[in-house]
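TASK: fixed-backbone design
INPUT:
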């Protein structure tokens, strides 16, 4: 008995030390655990410990019905077989690779195919200009009146009625009339639009190199996607690709900078929001089972005090005119290169309490430990900026990193107690150099302790993904434990709607519609072997 208890204690204490959390924070009392365990029964103790652990994990408290249980058996057979095969060969476990190296292999995965069919609820973190696929974006370059210019080896693409003289603009359709030139320019355009490369670990061996290429992609298509007709069509396509991937609601970040017409006329943020809302309404009309979309106003974080003040004025006006369509506010861009949130804290505190914040906070590297201030500022803003409506759960943290939330137990516990959702974008974290192997992703601890987590896709077009399924695959296969099953996936989908900006009534309606899709999904999966 003593030996079994000591062995079990060693494991439990090890867990407490590693996670820097008292056992009680797991909802597990050591005395209760030992009291419930039969004397001299090591295997019973082990079984009880594993059961307690599973109950504390994401979705652990959900009960599966008969059909869900059958579906879960099929899912877990596929998952465990893939894990087994990956480790047996020693070097073929896909989440251990850079995502851009193994896209075709992931698409062949049985687990991925199941996840693609699964109703995933909502996307809460995606950027408007980087959702629709690379293929769709490249096809946009065949539209009329698109000109190309090579400026210091960087391509610029812009629509004109009559081109300006600020660059040596050439009509792209004319350039393509020559087959040799067409091949060369097409290859250059494709390279400018994606981070996908043959050896990403070598090409982007530092965070700064990854971000440099990342930023260049957005610069390459900036004027392509800000042409008003393309802007409208792109938003519809964004929703279409999410819908086709079994996503039923989206909160999309947009800088709302400006768009232009062929004659050079420009439109600001108010007109842009009006267009986005009209397109969203049209999409919902065309697809009645799609719940809708909202916009998070998200200008760049490399701003001075005056510019941030202008941002907040714009935000207030947009929320006034479009109260149900503007979800809230964020500041975007590489956190290490931008300003601390604390620098804008006083100005942020002047915003109406009803307007939610959804800040990028905690994407810090060890060389910049002060990025912890972004987390502290975010939580302080949450505490002092509580909306007046009941049941507020509209604060989100963006895809944090290993050097942030999970290394600060007090802040982590505060996030849990306040019900603040942590937006995790696994592929983005990896591609932008924050984690190499998904098995080392810090979200593993959040999943293990059933913290409020949602999975999102950030900028899928940039790294060759499409929709949300690829990020679900990396999270389910690479970040979660091997034991995480259908309950974890179900909880993620529920979380995505529960922590959305939808009203409580809208959430109930959305969950009802999602449940219909979920039941159909598990019924189909349960009969997979038949």
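OUTPUT:
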């Amino acid at each position: 008995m003593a030996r079994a208890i000591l062995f079990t204690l060693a494991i439990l204490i090890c867990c407490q030390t590693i996670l820097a959390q008292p056992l009680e924070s797991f909802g597990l009392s050591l005395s209760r655990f030992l009291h419930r365990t039969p004397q001299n029964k090591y295997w019973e103790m082990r079984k009880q410990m594993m059961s307690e652990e599973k109950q504390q994990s994401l979705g652990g408290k959900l009960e599966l019905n008969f059909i869900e249980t059958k579906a879960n058996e099929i899912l877990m057979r596929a998952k465990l077989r893939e894990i087994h095969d990956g480790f047996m060969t020693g070097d073929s476990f896909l989440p251990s690779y850079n995502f851009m190296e193994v896209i075709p292999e992931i698409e062949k995965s049985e687990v991925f195919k199941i996840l693609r069919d699964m109703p995933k609820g909502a996307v809460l973190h995606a950027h408007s200009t980087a959702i629709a696929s690379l293929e769709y974006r490249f096809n946009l370059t065949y539209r009329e009146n698109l000109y190309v210019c090579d400026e210091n080896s960087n391509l610029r693409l812009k629509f004109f009625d009559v081109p300006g003289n600020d660059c040596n603009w050439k009509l792209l359709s004319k350039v393509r009339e020559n087959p040799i030139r067409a091949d060369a320019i097409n290859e250059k355009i494709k390279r400018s639009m994606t981070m996908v490369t043959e050896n990403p670990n070598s090409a982007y061996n530092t965070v700064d190199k990854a971000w440099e290429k990342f930023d260049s992609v957005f610069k390459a298509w900036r004027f392509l996607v800000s042409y008003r007709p393309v802007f409208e069509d792109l938003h519809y396509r964004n929703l279409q690709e999410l819908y086709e991937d079994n996503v039923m609601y989206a909160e999309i970040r947009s800088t709302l900078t400006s768009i232009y017409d062929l004659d050079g006329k420009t439109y600001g943020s108010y007109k842009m929001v009006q267009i986005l809302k009209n397109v969203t309404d049209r999409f919902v009309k065309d697809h009645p089972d799609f719940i809708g979309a909202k916009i998070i106003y998200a200008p760049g974080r490399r701003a001075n005090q005056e510019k941030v003040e202008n941002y907040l004025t714009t935000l207030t006006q947009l929320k006034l005119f479009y109260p149900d369509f503007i979800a809230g506010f964020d500041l975007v861009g590489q956190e290490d290169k931008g300003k601390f949130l604390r620098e804008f804290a006083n100005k942020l505190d002047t915003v109406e309490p009803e307007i939610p914040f959804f800040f990028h906070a905690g994407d810090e590297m060890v060389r910049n430990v002060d990025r912890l201030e972004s987390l502290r500022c975010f939580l302080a803003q949450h505490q002092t900026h509580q909306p007046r409506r009941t049941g507020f759960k509209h604060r989100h943290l963006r895809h944090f990193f290993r050097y942030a939330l999970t290394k600060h137990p007090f802040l982590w516990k505060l996030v849990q107690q306040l019900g603040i959702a942590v937006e995790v974008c696994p592929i983005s974290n990896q591609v932008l150099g924050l984690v190499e192997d998904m098995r080392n992703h810090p979200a593993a601890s959040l999943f293990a302790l059933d913290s409020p987590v949602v999975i999102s896709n950030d900028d899928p077009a940039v790294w060759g993904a499409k929709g949300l399924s690829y990020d679900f695959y990396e999270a389910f296969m690479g970040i979660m434990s091997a034991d995480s099953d259908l309950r974890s996936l179900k909880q993620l989908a529920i979380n995505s709607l529960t922590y959305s900006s939808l009203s409580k009534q809208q959430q109930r309606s959305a969950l009802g519609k999602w449940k219909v899709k979920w039941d159909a999904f598990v019924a189909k999966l349960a009969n997979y072997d038949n």
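COMMENT: Residues 116 and 469 are 5 Å apart (CA to CA).
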